[in-house]
Amino acid sequence: MENIKFEIIEKVGVLSESKNGWKKELNLVSWNGREPKYDIRDWSEDHQKMGKGITLTEEEAIKLRNILNNNLKCKI
User: Fold this and answer.
1) What is the pTM of this model?
2) Are 5 and 32 in contact (CB under 8 A)?
3) What percent of the chain is predicted at pLDDT more than 70?
4) CATH label of the domain that carries residue 51
C-alpha cells in the first residue's frame, strides 16, 4: 500500500478516549498535500497510527452541525 502523507493543521478537539490511549479527534488535516479537510478518526497518542475515519469539507461540516443542532434531544 502506498504511504499516505498527512499534516494535522489544527487540532480542533477530542471527542473520546479509549482505555488503550487512542483518542477520537476532530482535526483539520491535509492529506497528501491537498486542501485541509475536517477529519474525525481515532489516533494513537503520538499521532503516528490512525484508525478509519471520515473527512468533511467545510460545507459538509456546516451541514452536519446544522443537522445535529436540529436533531439532538438536548438543545443548546
Assistant:
1) 0.87
2) yes
3) 96
4) 2.30.31.70
